[in-house]
Amino acid sequence: MPELPEVETVRRVLAPHLLNKKITDVALHNVQVIASPLPEQFAERMRGQIISDFTRRGKFLRLCFASGDFLTIHLRMTGCLTVEPRLTPAEKHTHIVFSLDGGNELRYEDVRRLGKMYFTPKGGRDTSGAEKLGVEPFDGALTAAYLRSNCENSKKPVKSMLLDQSIVAGIGNIYSDEILFAAHIRPDKPCNALLSEEFERLAAAIPERLAYFIEKNAVSFEDYILSKGKDYRNTPFLQVYGRSGEACPVCGGALQRTVLGGRSSVFCPHCQR
What we know:
Blueprint: H1 4-14, E1 23-28, E2 34-36, H2 39-46, E3 51-57, E4 60-65, E5 70-74, E6 79-85, E7 94-100, E8 104-110, E9 116-120, H3 144-151, H4 158-163, H5 173-183, H6 196-216, H7 221-226, E10 256-260, E11 263-267
Parallel strand pairs: 2-9
Antiparallel strand pairs: 1-7, 3-4, 4-5, 5-9, 6-8, 7-8, 10-11
Helix pairs in contact: 1-6, 3-6, 5-6
């Protein structure tokens, strides 16, 4: 699943090609991805909208319109967005196409069809779930005190806390492993056993690691389109995620894998306590 660094990459790459563009038409090839409104109303409400901003909140993307309406997009497991010339053949699993003035199209492709789109009229209630998200990792409100106040009485593993989108928005299975490795904390350590200095390290590691991977994921518009928005570039820079049995990049010991709440996690038993 795309996590915050990948979703932010999508936003940064596509924003210059979307801002101030008018949606002239909408083609619906699979209405399963439309969560609201009803599919028959979706195209009508999107036509004529002028894109005034393209933002991100956690793992959600949002097309903001000059009308005050907005469209929230959750890519989930396999969703991806591209901007391509109208005459470029569409990929097999392209479900929604927004025609833009100037000759390009904003296309939504999703092999597993798990992604969702939520249209919200000006002044309406956002039903995407984005309003329930916790702080952004780069928000000054993300402090050791904030983390402690949200989990110091909980026995759940610290990794589960990082995956809780109502506490910190945007972290998934990949970057929770990387954050905990940088903070020298075992993923299975109970939240109520964390020391003050561990909360401090965690609060510092979250924005630092995510900013690092946003930088490593940077890609030109041309390369992004060439890969159809699917070529994430983080793999060579991951220190522990997906590397069970390999040598720890710090101490050289073998990395270990465990399962927490049904999610795989890799860590160094020597460096992380």
